[in-house]
Amino acid sequence: MKKTVPERKSMIDKDHASLSLVQQCILLSISRSSLYYRKMGLRSLLPGPHTSKPSQENPVYPYLLRGLEISHPNQVWATDITYIPMKNGFMYLMAIIDLYSRYVVHWSVSNSMEVEWVVI
């Protein structure tokens, strides 16, 4: 009977005299990165409450694609920027996606929100 991943991970000896961690992971068929993974609660990554609530002073724009049949590639592209919390600040990820094919047309990562970063 094949052992589960947690069972195989428990067999790792970080102080083994002749087998490195890489070699042990290969022999046990487990990902080396899983040795370093620490489970974190989602709450610890997210900012405070109500970050998605619209502000009273900001206008709410209509959804202009409502009722439009997206029937072929390159008909409609969408873009979004999200932030990735890091130990010291944030990294920002910008992506442009073809809505029909879900193909990522362009993406970029930056450590600042400068205008030149998102203009291609």
From TrEMBL:
GO molecular function, one term: nucleic acid binding
Family matches, as Gene3D superfamilies: Ribonuclease H-like superfamily/Ribonuclease H (3.30.420.10)
Origin superkingdom: Bacteria
A Gene Ontology BP annotation from the UniProt entry: DNA integration
Integrase catalytic domain sequence ranges: 69-120
SUPFAM superfamilies: Ribonuclease H-like
Protein name as catalogued: DDE-type integrase/transposase/recombinase
Naturally occurring in which organism (per UniProt): Rapidithrix thailandica
